[in-house]
Amino acid sequence: MKNLFCLLFILAVPVYGQGVSGTNATKGSPADVPTEGAKGNLAVPSLPGFTQKGSTTVLDRDDQLRLSLNPEQFGAAGTGSGENGDDCAAINLAIQYAAQGAGLNTPKVVHLNGRNYRCSKANYQILMPRDFGDYSRASAGEGAQFSLDIVNGSIQSCGISGGKGYNPKGWIIGQIKDASYHGSGGSVYALTDNNGVPIPGSCVVDSAGINYPPTGVDVYSFAQGADGATVMATMSDGTFTSATSISNSTGMPQGNGYPSFAFGLPAGLVCKIKPQFAGTAGKSGLSVSALTSVRVTAPGSGCTYNGTASAKVPIWVGESVGEGTAQAKNIAPSSAVTIGCAIQLRAGVSIEGDGGTIQTDWQTGVYGPNEIVALCDAYGNQARNISIRDIHLAAPAGIWLSGTTNNFTVENVTEQYATPRVQGPKTYIPGSGGGLFFYAAQTGPGTVIDNISNYASGGIVVGGQYTSRGEFGLGSMGGTNVSSGGGIYTYAVSGSADGLVINNFRQYQQYGNSYNALLDQFFEKFVWHGDFTPASTPKAANGQGVCPTTLTPQVRSVDYLFGAGNSSRFQCYRGISDRAITILSRSPYVSQNVSISNVWQDKGYRSPIIASVTNSRFSMVRMPALGNTYKDPFIPPGTKAVAVIETPTNLPSGPVNRFEGISNPDPGRSHFTTTLLGTSFSDDRTASSSWDMVAGMPSGGHIITIQNIFGKAGSLKFKHNLGTPNPISNCYSTDSTSAPSVALIPGDINNVLVTSSAAATVVCIFQFAPAPGSY
After folding, report:
1. Same domain membership, residue 251 and residue 198
2. How many Å apart are CA 499 and CA 447, to the nearest integer?
3. Are residues 289 and 240 in the same domain?
4. What range does the record give for the signal peptide (predicted)?
5. CA–CA gap between residue 342 and residue 90 (Å, rounded)
6. What is the pLDDT of residue 771?
7. What is the pLDDT of residues 512-568, one digit of tens each?
8. 246 and 204 share a domain?
9. Helix (H) or strand (E) holding 671
10. What is the pLDDT of residues 129-168, one digit of tens each?
């Protein structure tokens, strides 16, 4: 086996710890947008097997659209059956030809001509979303050089050399890009020593990837965010007298990478007036951006720490972990995980199925790294100026897009219920299966999904990915993306569905509903990562004090996720199967200007639509009948939380949405609590929305807000006077110390019983909903 070795040099950017390496890199290019290859008409010999019949005089765009381009021109089986071969490699060649050529003589639409194609292997690998172990806005370090040993298209080993000024005992992240868009799925990182210098021989291949060329592969380096500072303050008789930066016993004893400082107080500190602190950045040891000194700017008063008025009190630099119990520290990047993809989409190249089929092999029927997506953007920057039309898909996931869409249309597509398959012509085995029709990390302008028939377990999913440990630091929404939190909230790099248009979506069911526990758990484990954040906390976003999860906790998040501000509020995972549409950002982002119309879900037990949106429209949504019941693991026991449409947000007022023509399959309220559930957030209001042709909600329902003070844990009657035994209720405590619960009182149409778990001021918003069976 011949080893092909590619040494890649890095031009470091010290401000954010980012560097560019490789002879094909363009200085100053955005780090998450690979440089395109050379443009021009591609010579025929550069694409093996290409044959063009006849000639066409091309004068304008209309002539270009009539040019012939299909997989048969690149060696696909003439019958298009795909039973005994992998025709999908030929589809990729056709797409590459269209993407790399320029001018009107290059076709931009690949036609499948109604044929059926089998994809027996993954031609690309999609890196799943993850964090890179840090949590701070800024970083330091420069000069590191990665090298890659690429053998048969995969990264066999890597090296690191040079560089200085990185965090001691830290990690340097390597971002691998192939501008030819052949290789994908690779990931590397390296370690630093006690002095912040990269350690030769420490480079780790976290994911080897596939199909990388021997040359032309670029690596961008990223330093983890500021870390290593520790502060201890002295409190005497309830006031703070001094604070000290504590040495960490490395070559950078007061930490590294800090341009400024934010300080937090421990959970055990209770004060009548809280203290305040300030820090100074400067040189300490080998670092020029350390916390050189700390001072008390406001001493506070009436303070106790764990019940004591005089004590040494830890003060958090940046963020804490464990609900304010320990200083946050950088950790190793979360593990790279990939799933397979058969066909990579390219910007500007459309696919016309002409009624044809793309089916991927799925040997086990188990969701995970072994599965193969049919169509994807494995890089995160190619889902733009594309239309996918008139095609049948049968795969664990029909379309998977790692980045943002722009001018992206999916129309007249049928997603089949995927089943496992063994090698061999026309040999299928029954068993587990299901599939997901469409996933996008986020959607941008001009994204339209229209006239879809979905037989898979999951429908349309936008957002939901865990991208970072905190508000800042490095994070990835998937694909080759590595986002620095230099000027933005890292968690805000994904999750938006702004401007999305969904029309004529039909969700068909298997066996009374399309609930698929394996699909739900796959998305929770590899995309949402419910195990990376605390499941139980009085500040949980759904107001229940817990975010149910099927995973074993391995908490990585810092406490911003459960802090006091709105930025801390994110949704709990609700599953993606047995639902037509899920638009639920893992961050607190609320999408706008979304239009969802003509959705039909054939039975079901979950809400057909759950979307964190405002200034949006839901029209003509119908679920004819209830599906078979099951225990939903993502709803707290006893919680009445589902409806035909759910619109949970973290907005202090609103959301402002319009609902038209919504049908409820459960007038007896045995399962659905109301036609619409305005929110699962405890401090949201829903009166600003409008309802037309929605039974029982002629004007959105009367609304009233009530506040009571609980002197201790217990229950109080709240009088809403709405004249209904079944009001929509959302309650919260003003200081987040309690997660109030609401119980209906049988026969009482004007009162409910509210229980608080602690002494607190509790606010409840009650909204009219019709009595069970009244419509």
Report:
1. no
2. 7
3. yes
4. 1-17
5. 11
6. 58
7. 678 889 999 999 999 999 888 877 765 555 555 667 888 998 989 887 543 343 334
8. no
9. none
10. 999 999 998 999 999 999 999 999 999 999 999 999 999 9
Cβ–Cβ contacts within 10 Å for residue 11, how many?
17
Q: Which of 637, 620, 539, 633 is nearest to 577 (CA)?
A: 633
For residues 47 and 33, the answer to whether their CB atoms sit within 8 Å is no
* Max Cα distance, the chain (Å): 92
Judged against a pLDDT cut of 90, whether residue 185 lies above it is answered with: yes
pTM of the model: 0.83
Structural domain ending residue among the three candidates 202, 223, 244: 223
Q: How far apart are CA 730 and CA 652, in angstroms?
A: 13
> Are 297 and 312 within one domain?
yes
Residue-number span of the structural domain to which 158 is assigned? 131-223
3-class SS shares of the chain: helix, strand, coil, % to 5: 5, 40, 55
| Token pair belonging to 417 | 């219920």
Q: What is the pLDDT of residue 566?
A: 37
Please indicate whether residue 185 or residue 697 has the higher confidence score (pLDDT). 185
Q: Which of 280, 401, 304, 277 is nearest to 345 (CA)?
A: 401
In a domain, 636, yes or no: no
Q: Is the dihedral of CA 277, 278, 280, 286 positive or negative?
A: positive
> Binning pLDDT at 50, 70 and 90, where does residue 196 land?
very high
Are 505 and 580 in contact by the 8 Å Cβ rule? The answer is yes
The separation between CA 269 and the C-alpha centre of its own chain, rounded to angstroms, equals 34
DSSP secondary structure letter of residue 225: B
Last residue of a domain, one of 188, 223, 258: 223
For 61, the enclosing helix (H) or strand (E) is helix 61-65
Q: CA 480 to CA 486: how far, in whole Å?
A: 18
Between CA 546 and CA 533 the distance in angstroms is 11
Mean pLDDT is lowest, of 390-399, 543-552, 587-596, for 543-552
One domain, residues 249 and 296: yes
49-58, 385-394, 529-538, 762-771: range with lowest mean pLDDT? 49-58
Cα–Cα distance, 377 to 181 (Å, whole number): 10
